Amino acid sequence: MDANVNGSKIMAASGVTLPESQQVLVRKRKVADENTERSPLKDRKMNINETVVNGNKNLSQRSRLPQPSLKRMKLNTTVDNTDLAVKKFGSSNVTFSAASTISKIASTRPSIGVRSQYGAGLAKTVQGVGTRSRPMNCAATVTGTIGKKPRVAVTAPTSVETAGAGSKRRPAWDLKGQLSDMKVQLGNMRTRMSEYTSKLEVSEVHSKQLQDSVYQRDKQLEIASSQIEELQSNLKAMELLLKNREVELEKCRAENSAMQGVLEVRGTELEHLTAQVTELKTSRSELQSNYLTLSMLAENTENKLKLTETELALKVACIEEQKSTIASLRDVIVDREERLHLTEQERRRLHNTVQELKGNIRVICRVRPVLDSEKEGCGEIEHVQFSHDDDKVITLTKKEESHIGRDRKGEVKYDFSFDHVFQPMAKQKDVFEDISQLLQSALDGYNVCIFAYGQTGSGKTFTMEGPDDMTPENMGMIPRAVDQIFATAEKLKTMGWTYKFTASFLEIYNETLRDLLVTKPEKNVEYEIKRLNNKSEQLHVTNLKYVTVTAEDQVHNLIAIAKANRSVAKTAANDRSSRSHSVFQLMIEGNNSNRDLQCTSTLSLVDLAGSERLDKSHSKGDRLREAQAINTSLSCLGHVIMSLSNKESHIPYRNSKLTYLLQNSLGGNSKTLMFVNVSPLEENFSESLNSLRFASKVNECVIGTAQLNRK
Predict the structure, then answer these.
(1) Backbone CA torsion sign across 645, 648, 650, 652
(2) What is the three-state SS of 548-617?
């Protein structure tokens, strides 16, 4: 701040007009200088004079002895006042000899304090009224330098003073001795007074020199302050100017960067425009060449157009002729379609006639191969014989004891003839080819029933459903029949036929109906076999799950679910014996909107449980009850077949749930086929013979002609 004020003073002295704030600072600086104009030496001198005067007054009042002159008192006070640091801070270089004696003498004398500006008192020994004292003789020298506080050196008293102080106290009546002592003291004091006077003069000279030096320094300080203030003001002006220049520079830089961005954009645009101009020039040259080419093409096109118009006129005439030809061909197509329809009807009639000639109940015999687990205890199959020339004959042979003698054994033969006999090496596809024509009748509107009969372990389930790990090679009759039904229905779409298929799967277990498509059957749900209505002969099962299917994969999934839910168990005769009759039914509804024709039919595929002998199966408990129910239902089936063969008036369909469910298939309004499965093992000779005998009765049974279900 002082530098600013001094600079302002210099600027004011040079005639420069200062701002109002700087003028206020100059005025404050002047007031501060006036307050500090007096130096510490002047104040110190004034304090000494006042102290000396007051001390003289006090001494004159308190003592009757001769008093020292005012000049000597000033000398003493001046020397005492120079020792400011010693009295104030207690750190002066004062040394005393015989300090203990002097301190005792000083403590018995009163002192008159002359205070300086530092608050230090001047110790003066004066003899008061009614007291006797000895002054302390000491010499003090003031030393110091400019700018530093003076130091006082105190010397020890002389030998004379020491001797006087150490002598005995004079009695009160010895006035001369006392007077001589005082004279001695007075001489000593005068000596000290002269010494102090000389020292004071030296100090005054030194003080004057210091004052002159301080004055010169103050002048130099004022000049330097003014210069500093001027420089600071100039510096502020330059800083303000620099800030303005920096702001202008930032603006210029911003404008420069903006201009550079604009320049870059303009450069990019210029390059783009240059490229466009180049492209336009190239395009112009190309267009010119194209124009010439198009002109030539236009001329050629006009010539071609004239030729085309001529050709078009000729083609229009040809089109008129073709239209008339098409109209005549349409009539031919309609006639051909009508003839095709009549041919299809004739094909169906002839197909039905062929099936009727083959018999309403066809029987196919199949002998299963020997399993790997059975080959060890079984040799070649000798009791079952096949004809090489005729695939419809099978013969069972057995050696029996002769009635003439026990040692001679005769061979007994049992010959059977069926619609077809398949040997053990026959494949699934070979068996299916023989029944595929029968499945066509289901799409034509006839009820079709295929069921497998035979003893337990003879291969009925393998024939109808296939093994657990089913492949296209070993698929059973049920999945193959479904695939053919859907494939044929797809082909008939070209002739206007559309079909709807509904599937169901149930089993008859211990004369009780079970739904195989329900994973978790509900309790207290009864399944009963009833007719749809009084006018219809078609049967249905109440509460049974009927699923509409549109593809063969859906049917395969249903077959897998039913196979998992079917009742099977292990017996002594078969490791996986079916303990129920399974019935798969596919209801078919056909519609031909072009001819306004409708047909309905039911395809029933039945896997009967195998008959078994209790002495071989060793069934007990639940297995025994299952075997009894199976044998009973199969006996009822045999009774129905016998009644149909004998053309009896009453057919006992209701004796068993199996015969009651299949009465439409057995009663004449269906095309029926039965598989009789035979075991190749000689130990099952009796069961195989009974199965073949039953199949022969079924094959000989004539149940009537199946009716077409068409509206």
Answers:
(1) negative
(2) EECCHHHHHHHHHHHHHHCCEECCCCCCCEECCEEEEEEEEEEEECCCCEEEEEEEEEEECCCECCHHHH
| Range name among 11-15, 528-532, 571-575 with the lowest pLDDT average | 11-15
* pTM strictly above 0.70: no
What tokens does 376 get? 């060890």
Is residue 514 within 8 A of residue 527, CB to CB? The reply is yes
Token pair 């800083």: residue: 239
Burial state string for 418-454 with b = 16 or more CB within 10 A and e = fewer than 16:
bbbbbbeebebeebbebbeebbbbbbbbbbbbbbbbb
584: left (phi over 0), alpha (psi -120 to 50) or beta: beta
Which tokens belong to 649? 């008036």
How far is the C-alpha of 510 from the C-alpha of 172, rounded, in Å? 169
Q: 106 near 154, Cβ under 8 Å?
A: no
With 0-12 CB in 10 A as exposed, 13-18 as middle and 19+ as buried, what is 141? middle
Collapsed DSSP state (helix, strand, coil) of residue 326: helix
> Which single residue is written with the structure tokens 């082909």?
491
Burial category of 540 from C-beta neighbours within 10 Å (exposed 0-12, middle 13-18, buried 19 and up): middle
Listed in order, strand segments (DSSP E) in 445-488 are 448-454
Between CA 562 and CA 567 the distance in angstroms is 10
How many angstroms separate the Cα of 250 from the Cα of each of 242, 255, 260, 511?
12, 8, 15, 107
Query: Under a CB-based contact definition with an 8 Å cutoff, are residues 117 and 43 in contact?
Result: yes
**Measured at the alpha carbon of residue 459, what is the angle toward residues 454 and 462, in degrees to the nearest 5?**
130
Place of tokens 């090496």: 425
Q: How many Cβ atoms are within 10 Å of 74's Cβ, its own excluded?
A: 19
Q: Is 130 left (phi over 0), alpha (psi -120 to 50) or beta?
A: left
Cα 625 from Cα 614, distance rounded (Å): 11
Amino acid 115 reads: R
Neighbours of 44 (CB within 10 A): 17
The answer to whether 211 and 39 are in contact (CB under 8 A) is: yes
SS3 676: strand
Q: Report which of 71, 88, 74, 215 is spatially closest to residue 151, judged by C-alpha positions.
A: 88
Helices (H), 112-174: 159-166
Identify the H or E element spanning 442: helix 428-444
Q: What would the pLDDT profile of 526-549 be if each residue is shown by its tens digit?
A: 888 888 777 777 788 898 999 999
**Backbone CA torsion sign across 384, 387, 392, 393:** negative
Residue 272 has pLDDT above 80, yes or no: yes
Q: Collapsing DSSP states into helix, strand and coil, what is residue 364?
A: strand
The CA distance from 476 to 465, in Å, is 4
Cα–Cα distances in Å, from 651 out to 633, 655, 658, 659, 703?
15, 10, 14, 10, 12
Dihedral through CA 47, CA 53, CA 55, CA 61, nearest 10?
-160
CA-based nearest residue to 681, from 609, 616, 607: 616
* Cβ–Cβ under 8 Å, residues 517 and 558: yes
Judged against a pLDDT cut of 70, whether residue 505 lies above it is answered with yes
Beta bridge partners of 660: none
Of 197, 79, 49, 76, nearest in space to 141 by CA: 79
pLDDT digit string (tens) for 656-690?
998 888 887 776 667 888 899 998 888 888 888 98
Going edge to edge, which strands form the sheet with 384-386? 384-386, 393-401, 409-417
What six digits make up the tokens of 283? 């395009």
Residue whose C-alpha is closest to residue 230's, from 24, 26, 37, 20: 26
Neighbour-count burial of 252, counting CB atoms closer than 10 A to its CB (0-12 exposed, 13-18 middle, 19+ buried) = exposed
Residue 316 CA to residue 167 CA, distance in Å, equals: 178
